[in-house]
Amino acid sequence: MAVLSIISRTASRRSVRALGVVAASAALAVGAAGNALACDISEFSAAAKCDGEKGVITVTDVDPAGIPATVSVYLQNKGADAEKIGEQTVKGSREGSTITFAADWKPNAEYRIHVKADRYVDEDIKPNLTTPSTPCKGEDTPAPEPSESSSTPSDTPSDETDSPAPEPSTSAPAPAESESTAPATVPGDNAPSPAAGDSNLAETGANSNTGMIAGIAAALVVVGGGAVFFGLRRRGANSSR
Predict the structure, then answer these.
(1) Do 92 and 67 contact (CB within 8 A), yes or no?
(2) Which of 151, 56, 166, 179 is nearest to 111 (CA)?
(3) Which of the residues 91, 113, 197, 241 has the least number of beta carbons within 10 Å of its own beta carbon?
């Protein structure tokens, strides 16, 4: 009986030890699995991108456990927080969940990004985010200076001012029918047109045989006077008889 009791005690001790080993192994496995599913800072990443003409900051969470995390973004100035850009909550996924902060960043600016997820994470993404040296806005780039050959219209006179004004044409336009001058005289007809006084002299005979007509008239007057004179004498002689 004593031997049987000793054997039973030894077997029970071994079984207890075996159960302890199994329980410890299970605890270690559960702990490892829990740590594998827990949120970690290495699962977060940040980037500075352009959204059209404005800059944005994106934070991506690839935590497969999907533990909610609060992300805060701060603008740095000489190693200190100068401005809080914003704060958002992200729930990670195996494919990655991304949140966007509307931060119109300047080239070569530095941002500190802090992540807090329950009791798992409470630290910054290392290193701090430094934005690209190229801005998003196209108008920030200096405009090219105009070349010497190009000038504004105010500096260079137009072609109209350089070219002299057209000279008036020497040939006058043909007059209208109502304004046309009298037809030129025929070359053969070179005699000048008589003046007004000359035409009156022609009508009175000053330009014809006026002297001859006057002489004939005077002769007729003399003849008539002589006839009257002789007639009067004849009558006086007859009356005296």
Answers:
(1) yes
(2) 56
(3) 241
